[in-house]
């Protein structure tokens, strides 16, 4: 019984550790996303500076627009990738929540079973002890009666031996 409980505890600890590591990975991913957004903000700031330079340097407008279009395409592609990653993370988080709910349900069932077994075991032990006490009492009276008989027989033997 104790070994089963230890095994269950070890599995629960393992599940908890896996959940904590997953949670840490999610946090790290969000940190990476935040860094990406900071980079995006920096790039937008660069674009704004370039628009100001465009006004000053009208002769270089065509070349700069081409560069900006390339950067915007790359940025949009990165945004799409980021959105896809966020969607996948949300789906995975939903799956993890569902799994956790199932684990919690199973844990509750295990707890109920263990409690029921504990109560049943205590009742069984109590019943066995009561039976043992009854048998000890019965045998105690029988032993007392046998001791009494033995004492009489020994007394009779001694009496006979003294007469001989």
TrEMBL record:
Domain of life: Bacteria
Residues forming coiled coils: 58-163
Gene3D superfamilies the record matches: 1.20.5.340, 3.90.20.10
This protein's UniProt keywords: Coiled coil
Name this polypeptide is given: Uncharacterized protein
Organism encoding this protein: Anoxybacillus flavithermus
């Amino acid at each position: 019984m104790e070994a089963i409980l230890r095994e269950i505890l070890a599995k629960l600890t393992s599940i908890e550790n896996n959940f904590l590591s997953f949670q840490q990975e999610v946090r790290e991913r969000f940190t990476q996303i935040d860094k990406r957004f900071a980079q995006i903000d920096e790039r937008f700031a660069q674009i704004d500076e370039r628009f100001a330079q465009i006004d000053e340097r009208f002769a270089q407008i065509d070349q700069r627009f081409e560069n900006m279009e390339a950067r915007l395409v790359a940025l949009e592609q990165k945004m799409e990738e980021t959105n896809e990653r966020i969607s996948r993370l949300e789906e995975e988080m939903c799956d993890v929540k569902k799994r956790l709910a199932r684990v919690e349900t199973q844990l509750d069932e295990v707890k109920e079973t263990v409690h029921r077994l504990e109560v049943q075991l205590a009742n069984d032990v109590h019943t066995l002890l009561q039976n043992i006490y009854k048998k000890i009492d019965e045998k105690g009276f029988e032993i007392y009666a046998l001791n009494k008989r033995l004492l009489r027989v020994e007394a009779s033997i001694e009496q006979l031996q003294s007469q001989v």
